[in-house]
Write a structure and sequence with these properties.
- By secondary structure, this protein is mainly α.
- Helices cover 77% and strands 0% of the residues.
- Helix 2 runs antiparallel to helix 3.
- It is rod-shaped.
Length: 109
């Protein structure tokens, strides 16, 4: 019979042995690439919004580069904060359980 369970187990074992050949799985690579894209988008979005607001305020109030510079600095700070948060989540990994609630984090438990 072609659907013999022992045959299936040997094929699974062979596939697992072959997969442990030192190559990383596509899922891990996609996750790393996804995190890199996320960090890039976080930084670019923060900068784009801040530059837009700075230019708009400078146009409305006729204050040439003043608000552009102020909001550019604020946008850079916001982008860096967002990237640091994303990096922390990436290195910490998923957390679950009751210790993950907001109240427990404030107390330091």
């Amino acid at each position: 019979m072609a659907d013999d369970p022992s045959d299936l187990e040997t094929r699974i074992a062979a596939a697992r042995k072959k997969d442990k050949g030192g190559r990383s799985t596509g899922k891990a690579q996609a996750s790393g690439y996804g995190m890199a894209v996320r960090m890039t988008v976080e930084m670019v979005a923060a900068l784009a919004v801040s530059v837009f607001l700075g230019l708009w305020l400078d146009g409305e109030l006729d204050t040439a580069p003043l608000f552009l510079v102020i909001f550019l600095v604020l946008g850079m700070a916001a982008g860096v904060i967002n990237v640091v948060r994303a990096a922390r989540v990436m290195t910490r990994g998923p957390r679950c359980g009751p210790a993950d609630s907001e109240g427990d984090r404030k107390r330091g438990d």
